[in-house]
Amino acid sequence: MPTSPSSAAQAARKAVARQLHDLRREAGLTVVQLAAGCGWHYSKTSRIENAVTAPSAGDIRRWCAVTGAEDRAQDLIVHSLDAESMYRQWRDQVRAGLRHIQESRIQFFQDTALFRMYSAGLVPGLLQTEGYATAVLRIAAEVHALPEDDSTEAARARVERSRIVHEPGHRFVFVIEEGVLHCRVADTEAMAAQLGHLLAVGALPAVSLGIIPVEAARTHWPEETFHVYDDRMVSVELVSAEVTVTQPGEVAQYLATFERLRAMAVYGADARALILRAIDALR
């Protein structure tokens, strides 16, 4: 199975640590000698080499100077910053409120021509109705113990942002697992409205809505929810963090995974039949 996004972020940290370790070994220095040259305790060297502590830009410059590899410093600093930015704690993101998260991404969405979104658990945000979004974001506020619940305002902002599906210049490819249709995160009325909305938005010219039936023969296992923006960035939603992937090789891996998942989905009349089945189940 592929490495999870959280493991990928840690692997990026370890890659930087391994390069620093190799520089020290190539320079013929012990852990203690390098620490003395850098002016810190040897335990810090061990923590950095074992990817327990992320080195600062200054740490990397000192390390490279002591090992005679000043020309490697800038690349290592960039790689280290990339590794740390891959993994962003949800709590850090929601500190300014759930509404802020919705509004902060409007321009990014406007700049994206092709959206590819896969979800195994929830209706994707761009397809959510206000009632469904309010229920989802209220759960998020409770899970993260936010001091102020602004889920209602955040839901309105999410729906406002979702108007982009009606604007020219954008295309949307959604793939969801059938279980999404039956996940009761909202009351019956809100769920019925949400499922009805899927029927309507799935018919828009710029939208492709695929649903992977629960009985489908799997050629790929369900994945964490991930969104691909053009061919330049992937965001992956985990319990504790949102992972941002920008390395071309990793983006390509997500695109290949998306295509495998998309190939298992049904579309058009078959997809509508699954949605209607879920609506009937509400009764």
From TrEMBL:
SUPFAM superfamilies: lambda repressor-like DNA-binding domains (SSF47413)
Database matches in SMART domains: HTH_XRE
Species of origin: Streptomyces physcomitrii
Annotated InterPro entries: Cro/C1-type_HTH, DUF5753, Lambda_DNA-bd_dom_sf
Domain HTH cro/C1-type positions: 20-76
Top-level division of the source organism's lineage: Bacteria
Protein name per UniProt: Helix-turn-helix domain-containing protein
Organism phylogeny: Bacteria, Bacillati, Actinomycetota, Actinomycetes, Kitasatosporales
Pfam families, per database record: DUF5753 (PF19054), HTH_31 (PF13560)
